[in-house]
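User: Assemble these into one structure.

Assistant: Restating your components, then the assembled model:
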Amino acid sequence: MNTDETTRQALVALIPRLRRFARVLTGNMADADDVVQACLEKAMLNLDQWQPGTRLDAWVFRIARNHWLDNRRRAHNRMGHDDISEMPDLVGDDGVAVVEAGDEARMVRAAVDALPPDQRDVVALVILEEMSYREAADTLGLPIGTVMSRLSRAKAALAKRIAGTGAVQ
Amino acid sequence: MSASFTDAQLAAFLAGTLVDEALIDAIEVAINADPDLAARTEALAAGHEIDPLVQAAFAPVLDAPVPERLIAAATMRDAPDEAEVVSLDEVRAARSRAAPIPANDTARGSWGWAQIGAMAASLALGVMIGGPLLKAGSDAPQGASLVLASADLDAMLDNAPSGQLVELAALGQGEVVLTFRNIDGQLCRQFMIESVGGATSDALACAGGAGEGWQIEAYGRRAAPIGEMRLAGGDAAPAVIAAVDAMIDSDPLIGADEATELSKK
């Protein structure tokens, strides 16, 4: 198994996280999957530009985000329905608990989707990907203080929206 | 400068609980200008009560089935929507034209991947590219070629007699239509694949020798899908027919002769 093949397998393994990242960036799964597909194609074309020993995920997220910044005017921007709640795995055994958890999740997603684009980037990397501020700053090509302030404002906005609905005490 | 903000202010800044917008901006500017302050602030980072809520809200995406087109994009087994026929000779010729470009030139690397992606798409098969063809270095052996990556396909080429329909799992159905030895004495097999989606591809593979497996020498997609598998005939992709004509140096091997030749490849 050569290195390229190993890297390809690592790329395939990254797809679920890449979809989640793109979903936060784009606000909908249709655009997210278009971004992921273009990102994977670009990554495959430029695999020789990735430096082994550095984070493959950060490299790929950067490609995805740059693609989205370049192409978002052409995106569908289908908003208005919550596509994640339509995903089959939300259906569980305890119907009531699932519905309640689903309502809360829907509301949290709506709050995230309502954030300005440059705050969604940092939410996706720091909260969901659990990157450090430094890693997120390197991935986004931003100064670390700017990442911190964007996340600060994002957290304030999320807390306000979510607290207003009772999910956070 | 670091000293001008308290830990409480910095922690509140990170937590999103500062209400003074001007103070938020001032801290951002100060951190960007002062690595020590950045490090001090990083050390104050803590989880936030909304973090697990946000994580849970987007968790279904991680668990959802991944669309096939995304896996195809990462493995270059693209859905074949562009009929394109590329011969290996064209690839080699283009490669040698590209040879003067420095090995680390990105355009050259991109060219290789793009071409190979188009070829993989044209074949509509799970093909993997042999390492040497991809390496930008000049020491790639002349025999660099496409190497079949599908175990099902490999098994069909290794064992199946001509004319026998073979199930190839995710690829669809395959059939070897012609077996012969080429002018170099290699065993070669022309075959077709009808994908699950109905597209039919033709290909010619020759045994690489020395345990290298099967290498694709030519391939192409048929202009229109056909409803059922047919025996070898004039409707195979022109590039494949031309390659067979150019390479064939024995009578078609069939029956017991074919089995014997396959066993010694």
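Chain A has two domains: 3-74, 89-163.
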